[in-house]
Amino acid sequence: MSLPNAARIARRELRGGLRAFWVFLACLALGVAAIAAVGTVREGIEGGLDREGAALLGGDAELSFTYRFANAEEIGWMLERAGALSEVVDFRSMAVTGEGEAARRALTQVKGVDDAYPLYGEVRLQGGQPLGDALAGRGARPGAVMAPVLAARLGLETGDTFRLGTGNFVLAGLIEAEPDDAGDGFGLGPRTLVRRIDLQGTGLLEPGTLFDSKYRMTLPPDTDLEALEAAARARFADEGLRWRDRRNGAPGIAEFVEQMSAFLVLVGMAGLAVGGIGVSSAVNAYLDRKTEVIATLKSLGADGRTIFLAYFMQIGALALIGIGMGLAIGAAAPLLAAPLLEDRLPIPADFGLYPQPLAEAALYGALAAALFTLWPLSRAEAVRPAALFRGSVERRSLPRARYLVATLALAGALVGSAAILSPEPILALYAALGVAGSLALLALAAAGTRIVARRLTRSRLLRGRTTLRLAAGSVGGPGGETAAVILSLGLGLSVLSAVGQVDHNLRSAIETELPDVAPAFFVLDIQPSQIDGYLSRVEGDPGVSRVDTAPMLRGVISQINGRPASEVADHWVLSGDRGVTYSEAPPARTTLTSGTWWPEGYDGPPQVSFAAEEGAEMGLALGDAITVNILGREITAEITSFREVDFSSAGIGFIMSMNPAALEGYPHSWISTVYAEPDAEAALLRDISGAYPNITAIGVRDAIARVSEVLGSVVAAITSGAGATLLTGIVVLIGAAAAGVRARIFEAAVLRTVGAVRGQVLTYLALRSALLGAAAGLVALLAGTISAWAVMTFVLDADFSIAAGPALAIVFGGALASLLAGLAFAWRPLSVRPAGVLRARE
Q1: Which domain of life is it from (predicted)?
Q2: Of 58-67, 68-77, 551-560, 616-625, highest mean pLDDT
């Protein structure tokens, strides 16, 4: 028979409607919709970042420095090229209200601005007051505006006075929107905005104080930003400047969105795999119902190739419908949710129809549909005309070689597409391996479940428990939904289990383990003239168990052994400025892993002790030369030792520690960590900030709460994606329960014929469904725990422990979902008359 004949058969089969394919269409549509929606949201956010890049940055380009302001030469270079120039200084400080024991304090991120700020956009204040009028102040006191949450925390209202350092400011307004807020990156405290000139005399910008100065420029539209950046770096290569421009106005957010979308697409791929199982099951069930039709066609002369092509074209047409439905849902969902998303996003977004994410979702859907339908479709060739008389299908244990090769090729294409199209190709490959491994584990578990169930039916444990024994026998019997339920529901629960376990372990590390060893305060900007008085206060407090201090500067590693550092290694240590300290002798609790410390009083060529783990990752060795740019001056030091640095303890940790003579004459401040009892914290904070208003004390618990808040948002997004995967698994579960109704009707008829009452039959059906769901939950718990352990151990390099609560919830949730699905289709088996069912099977 020819291809036109195959097409004619497919067309006539499709006249029967789509009712038999609702699981097929739902599974494919959900998987495609999830990937399309995530891609559309990503494109919308990236479009908003591109459109508002200048506003997010605060200018077309920005040069920034740490610890210092730009010098006359640098400002002159910027003025020659800029249409307008704005200077901004950014740092952390303590906002204080009241006096003595009644004083209230809160950490704030202070931004000092000039009259040109903002170059793009506008700062909106509640009530509509212009920013310039608000910062002008009242009388002799300068004005300030702050985030509403900070004002509420301090009990401030408009017109009240508060202190920053030694300066008094009047709260003149509350910030409603700040155009460059997202571009400023992660901050531990809410915003306070003041005029740069009003910070003079507050003690907050003394030499050595930790602050960032930022110089934003407006540029002509035709400016070659890449060339201008190269010119700036070449001119001021040794000045420690950092460059940003409108091409990436909020790099932290852009990177976060890219990584999150990559992960969510991979979660969507897991959902597509779950849907693929449903697709495969639906095709299997459909072909079982078409056995007599296929046998008849074979009897009339149709060969295996024609039969395969006929049903391949039929399933292909249905796949196009499912993909189209998924694309429509995935494109429409972000548009419908745009008002809600735009209100919650800290950045502008352009939600619309984007071809690229829709094309990617369609590609994934087509490859997944072909992959999961090819194997069951190959069964069509196994049907022989004798099936008309035997009422069964001859099943091959494996398809023919050409189908196996095609299956492997499709799987490779799907994984390869995910790796090529994903912004994180390595993550895509690992995720694909994880999904494949989970499917293999679930398939083995399904086979093992059937074996265990069959053995239980012969076990003494079930003697006298007839209903439970029948349920176990049904789970372990040939055919049925055991494999489909465990594979589909199990994979969805595995993703949810992995997310839950990782979330638990991260929160445990942040909220539970860390405070046991972490300091109460991390104290910044202690001036050298204040360190003795500061130590006298904190070390003399009986509630303080330990105080650590260290001088601190910040520098950029510019060269390694005379070569540009970026050419030697690609490492986070080289991506920006890092803390540098000095000491005559190794500080307490310092462990050298190799080399020796410089002798006391050493004043020869500069020497440096480097963090051992980071040094090994960068390929450094004893004797290597490191050039560090500090305050625009370069110091080249020889690595004479490596030491252990534990950044996870929230204590003081420096990548580099130099001999004191190497940094002599450099302005700097001191930092300190204070380990204190909770009852002593309030008095310590009051006395320290009262005596030294310029000092900033960061409560570690407050920092932990801020990190936990951000983590909660991330986990919520990932859990939503995992929930979509689970929803697809539940659709497959419902489809499997619906496909098994005919078998359940026959079983119920036999049981009622031998004397079982409706209650016993219902109990049997419920136990059967619950056993299947519990088995899926147990396997999902195992697969999810292994995945979470791998993420915590190899990706996050953290300890792992099993969370009992989420683990039990996964098993219980699996049993409950399967039970509800089974009971939803139990009414027909219970309502039919046994005689009619048995006569029909004669």
Answers
A1: Bacteria
A2: 616-625
- Band of residue 579 on the pLDDT scale cut at 50, 70, 90: confident
Indicate the range of 122-126, 201-205, 394-398, 518-522 predicted with least confidence.
Answer: 394-398
pLDDT at 611: 93
CA distances from 499 to 361, 427, 786 (A): 23, 16, 11
Residue 576: CB atoms within 10 A of its CB come to 11
Distance CA 519, CA 677 (A): 10
Element (H, E) at 227: helix 225-235
User: How high does pLDDT run on average in the chain?
Assistant: 78
CB of 503 within 8 A of CB of 791? no
Q: Please state, as a whole number, how many other Cβ atoms lie within 10 Å of the Cβ of residue 529.
A: 9
Give CA–CA dist 376/399, Å, rounded: 9
Query: Stretch 746-773: mean pLDDT, rounded?
Result: 75
Are 760 and 407 in contact, with CB atoms under 8 Å apart? no
Q: How far is CA 62 from the centre of its chain?
A: 29
Long-range contacts of 6-12 (CB under 8 A, 24+ apart): 6/306, 6/307, 6/309, 6/310, 6/313, 7/309, 7/310, 7/313, 9/297, 9/302, 9/306, 9/310, 10/309, 10/310, 10/311, 10/313, 10/314, 10/317
**What is the enclosing helix (H) or strand (E) of 675?**
strand 669-676
> 114 pLDDT band (50/70/90 cuts)?
very high
**Which residue type does 62 have?**
E
Helix axes 482-507, 758-790, angle to 10 degrees: 50
CA separation for the pair 227, 81 (Å, rounded)? 13
- The SS3 assignment for 293 reads helix
H-helix or E-strand containing 384? none
Say if residue 731's pLDDT is above 90. no
In the numeric block, the tokens 């990782």 are attached to: 502
H helix runs in 573-611, sequence order? none
As a whole number of angstroms, the distance between CA 644 and CA 632 comes to 29
Distance CA(651)–CA(547), nearest Å, equals 10
User: How confident is the model at residue 30, as a pLDDT?
Assistant: 79
Q: At how many degrees (to 10) do helices 425-457 and 482-507 cross? A: 120
Give the Cα separation of 59 and 225 in Å (integer): 12
Asked if the model's pLDDT at residue 185 lies above 80, the reply is no
Q: How far apart are CA 705 and CA 684, in angstroms?
A: 21
End-to-end CA distance of the chain: 36
Could you tell me the residue ranges of all domains in the chain?
A: 1-55+255-423, 61-222, 448-519+700-842, 544-676
Q: 514: helix, coil or strand?
A: helix
Q: Which of 102-111, 645-654, 789-798 has the lowest mean pLDDT?
A: 789-798
Angle at CA 256, nearest 5°, toward 255 and 257?
90
CA distance 59 to 781: 50
289-314 b/e (C-beta count within 10 Å ≥ 16 → b)? ebbeebbebbeeebeeebbbbbbbbb
Judge whether residue 837 has pLDDT over 60: no
* Confidence class for position 380, pLDDT limits 50, 70, 90: low
- Kindly state the DSSP code that residue 85 receives in the 8-state scheme: E
Q: Which of 246-250, 370-374, 401-405, 420-424 has the lowest mean pLDDT?
A: 246-250
The H-assigned helical ranges of 740-825 are: 741-753, 758-790, 804-824
What's the one-letter identity of residue 651?
G
Q: Give how far Cα 269 sits from Cα of 273, 335, 495, Å.
A: 6, 22, 11
Contact 255, 572 (CB under 8 A): no
222 pLDDT more than 90: no
Instruction: Band the pLDDT of 718: cuts 50, 70, 90.
Output: low
C-alpha 626/C-alpha 580 separation (Å) is: 12
Residue 536 has pLDDT above 70, yes or no: yes
Name the residue type at position 602. Answer: Y
91 bridge partner residues: 110
Cα atoms in the Cβ-side hemisphere of radius 13 Å centred on 619: 9
